[in-house]
Write a structure and sequence with these properties.
four-stranded antiparallel β-sheet, alpha+beta, 271 residues
Length: 271
């Protein structure tokens, strides 16, 4: 797809040259915003105003309410359970010095080993078994997603703990499509680690969640002395009805391929 090729081209350029390519792409109708460069732009969202950050009190469209309500549910119900299991894992790992999770496989971390992920869900499908150290978190996460019907059969839909070591940095990148919306629930941060989306920087606060569209250009960094840990979780863009969701599934060949990573034009997808 043209949008995918342009995204790859922009990533190979810098400064004013990259900005000029973004301006041309928006003028040609390939992308909706100079800061939003997904490999696939959902046709049903072309008439929906793109929004990098979704914040309470700043969005008037009532369709966002279920997503914002879900962020509150994560804070109230999932956060204490996840925090307790994370601390228990830390105590065990300190005694055996076992690396946590899997290293960056997306080539967007400056140092691949500095960003590790403990995976619950990939490509819209939960792993057969939840991570052994997080049985309560995994069970509650499954229950909440099933009840809310926010992420059913979601291509490129992930749920994982993102563990950022001190000094870790993700280069600016975009998610594969604007069909999904990302939530971050912070588990641990010493006040220094942050994420920047479409030029706006947010410092993670333990126990709090926020919502953004990761098809916008974003990066992350941890200049602190301790790990930054967040649960990242994807849900459907609320403006997509059942027919539009099926179109996205067809684009990503979701039904034909049951891989946790899936085929098709996915580019860079996590933070």
């Amino acid at each position: 797809q043209l949008s995918s090729l342009l995204y790859r081209l922009v990533r190979l350029t810098t400064g004013e040259e990259a900005a000029e390519w973004r301006r041309r792409a928006v003028a040609a109708g390939v992308w909706l915003s100079e800061m939003q460069m997904p490999g696939f732009v959902v046709p049903a969202l072309r008439d929906v105003a793109p929004r990098a950050w979704i914040k309470p009190g700043l969005v008037e469209d009532a369709s966002w309410k279920p997503v914002l309500d879900f962020a509150e549910v994560l804070e109230q119900r999932l956060s204490p359970v996840l925090a307790a299991e994370w601390q228990a894992l830390l105590r065990r790992s300190e005694s055996c010095r076992t690396p946590l999770g899997v290293a960056d496989a997306e080539n967007i971390a400056v140092d691949a080993d500095s960003w590790r992920q403990i995976v619950f869900r990939r490509n819209g499908r939960f792993l057969d078994d939840d991570p052994a150290s997080f049985p309560k978190t995994g069970a509650l996460l499954r229950s909440l997603l099933l009840k809310k019907d926010l992420a059913e059969d979601l291509p490129r839909g992930n749920a994982e703990l993102s563990v950022f070591a001190p000094g870790a940095e993700l280069v600016p990148h975009c998610g594969p499509s604007n069909h999904r919306i990302r939530l971050h629930l912070c588990v641990q941060n010493d006040g220094n680690a942050s994420i920047t989306v479409a030029g706006e920087t947010h410092v993670h606060q333990p126990g709090t969640a926020f919502v953004f569209d990761d098809s916008f250009l974003h990066s992350a960094a941890n200049p602190g002395a301790h790990d930054r840990v967040v649960l990242l979780l994807d849900v459907w863009h609320p403006a997509l009805n059942a027919s539009a969701r099926d179109h996205v599934r067809d684009h990503f060949h979701y039904r034909e391929n049951t891989s946790l990573f899936g085929p098709g034009p996915a580019l860079f997808s996590s933070s």
